[in-house]
Amino acid sequence: MTGKGGRDMVSVTRSLTGKLIVLIGGILLVGITALSYFAIANHRDYLMKNLLAQGDKLSTTIKLGTHYAMMLNSRDDITQIITNIGSQEGIESLRIYNKEGQIKFSNNQAEVDSVTNIRDEACFVCHRVEPPLVNLELSERTRLFEGPDGFRRLGIIAPIHNEPGCVGECHFHPPEKQVLGAIDFVVSLARTDGEIITLERRLMFFTAFIFIVISGAIYVFMVKVIRKPIMELVRGTRLIARGEPNPDIDVRQDDEVGLLASSITSMGRAIAAKQAELNRQRDEYQNLFARVPCIITVQDRNYRLIRYNREFAEKFKPRPGDFCYHAYKNRTSKCPDCPVEQTFATNRSHTSEESGPDKDGNMRHWLVTTSPITNEAGEVVAAMEMCLDITPRKELERELTKSEQKYQAIFSNIPNPVFVLDHETLNILDCNQSVEAVYGITRERLMSSSFLDLFRPSERERYARELREHEVIDRAVHMAAEGRRIFVTIRVSPSEYGGHKVWLVTTSDITKRLETEQKFIQAGKMATLGEMAAGVAHELNQPLTVIKAASGFILGRVGRGQEVPPELLADLAREVDGHVDRASRIINHLREFGRKPDMQLSPAQANDILRRALDIFSQQLKLREIEVVFDLAENLPPVMADAGRLEQVFVNLLINARDAIEERWAAAPPGDEGKRITLETRQEDGQVVIRMADNGAGIPKGVMERIFEPFFTTKKVGKGTGLGLSISYGIIQDMGGSIKVDSAEGRGTAFTISLPRAEDGNG
């Protein structure tokens, strides 16, 4: 291939088109030549056969024409016939030989009676054997020879057989002679050969013309249909080779070449897409290699730097042809334990941790990984070394060690007990030193036990479930050393310990706080009892009055000596007995209310507790003209509560309602509106709701948020302790409920208590 005009050209002899033209032209030339040859040969044979047939007919005609003259032995007639026939165009000679080879008749009178050699060309066909042949085929009786003018001659010899008519008195031919002589005539083939030559020339011209036309058509076809599209395909493939994504291949053919062009175009696009992807991956690799946040170098077997990334260049600023040990550590020889050397020795990757001063003299730490680089023969020609600077991590490890030591000290010295529990079994994996101070149990003993062992046996199953479901467990009972019982608040949070899921549990000893709260509650009860004293006096005054009246009536009748009718005495006794029972219930109620039991939650009926709390104040409220309106729901489900504590809450709220109503009416009677306390219960969203509302003075808006604080009160000095609502709030919270207040100054206050329903099994 040679460059010409900026474009590679293929020589004709080496081009596919030239080869196809030569091949097809050669085949076409051979084919047409063979066809022409066989056509000429066939035509020549046809002419020769035709000439032979005509010659045979002519010889037969001559024999027939001379037959009669021969029968009459009329030589003049025979001579005339021979002369006439021999004068015809194309007949060179016409002779009649006798058996001895003497020319008896001829169109050339000069040769009559001359004798020829019996072995010459004309006579040889019969006299080549002895005795001479009698019967010959036409092909054996013909001969071709060239005349002096260069044209061929056709000679035909026809034997003259002895016939019965030739034997007799008039003739001298004996009957045993079969052949009397022969007619030999020679015809010039000049005209025939001229026709053959003309035919050959025409065929040759026609062959050349057809060859040139067909070759030209093939050439045009090959150029347009094959060469031009192929050159276009070559141009397209070169564009593809240069990276053109969409080569413009102008081939508009619906054949295999067009399909090939379409395939090459698709291939070009696919190659371009693949090349783009390869370029992207190459660029990505180069960017990764250059920007990866670790040090990467490629070194030859002499530890000379072949290639390195940006991180290495910025940190160490190597010189061209620098050695790794000099660039890394400013050494003049390789490091004693060189992982690159090990890679060259073993043909495998190696990992190590290196430490040493950098160019600035600062101590650095690296995590080194090496990998062999091989050539096509599989020989290790270089090594890649990747160094991850772990100096910050080392510093962080030191800081982490200090931090762990610090937090371990904090963990050990937290004043509250801290436990690390197994996530599944709740076994104690670790605990701090405060455990021994609070529980009186050594840390070593707890480390081999379950956290559930600190609970009472009957409660372990319940607390095992609550530890996994709740973040805070309040007022749990733990068993300390020597059977001592303590109350704790447990806080649970999920965490990790040594790579495993654990529960981090903190306990707070609230035993003393509960004792203090109990004192506050008891003080509140005593204050409430003081408030209840007037109500109790009213409640006891009625049965005492009835008893006094009955006893006075009986004593008067007895003093006057009058007999008391049995029916009347029985009525008086029953009345006295009923009022004595009423007084006993009030006294027992006060005794139970004033006791100091631990809180025990159990199913309780809120309506009954509300009525019982009101019993103490019913007479007192009547005397103060305070109406109590009931709106209690029927079939109210029980609640989980401590009945005594809940009654204390209701009593505190009734006292506050009474005082608020008295305060409002003392300031300015509201006219026709009556004093009223409304008690309402209902079931709502799975809870029991108790609402106590009054139409008293209300709570000022500025102090609404403080009414549940201990020792806070809006009453005058000497009228309240400020503990009632605070204690009530704590009691409701301990029962798992809530208490809310809604008040409008000068119009009244409503307290709403929500308590959880007791479970079906406890109801």
Descriptive overview:
The protein is an alpha+beta fold. Helices cover 46% and strands 22% of the residues. It has 18 helices and 24 strands. The two termini are 107 Å apart.
What can be said about the biggest beta sheet? 5 strands, antiparallel
Radius of gyration: 72 Å
Low-pLDDT runs: 1-9, 717-722
Oligomer: single chain
End-to-end gap: 107 Å
Helix content class: 40-55%
Rounded average pLDDT: 78
Strand order of the largest sheet: 4-3-7-6-5
Counting DSSP E segments of at least 2 residues, the number of strands comes to 24
- Helix count, per DSSP? 18
Structural class based on helices, strands and sheet pairing: alpha+beta
Query: How would the global form be characterised?
Result: elongated
The proportion of residues in beta strands is 15-25%
SSE topology sketch:
Layout: E1 2-4, E2 7-9, H1 16-71, H2 75-86, E3 91-98, E4 103-106, H3 124-127, E5 142-146, E6 152-161, E7 179-188, H4 190-241, H5 256-291, E8 295-299, E9 305-308, H6 310-316, H7 324-329, H8 339-346, E10 350-357, E11 363-374, E12 380-389, H9 391-413, E13 418-422, E14 428-431, H10 434-439, H11 443-446, H12 460-469, E15 472-479, E16 485-497, E17 500-509, H13 511-559, H14 566-594, E18 602-604, H15 606-615, H16 618-623, E19 626-631, E20 639-641, H17 643-667, E21 675-684, E22 687-694, H18 724-734, E23 738-744, E24 748-756
Parallel strand pairs: 19-21
Antiparallel strand pairs: 1-2, 3-4, 3-7, 5-6, 6-7, 8-9, 8-12, 10-11, 11-12, 13-14, 13-17, 15-16, 16-17, 18-20, 21-22, 22-24, 23-24
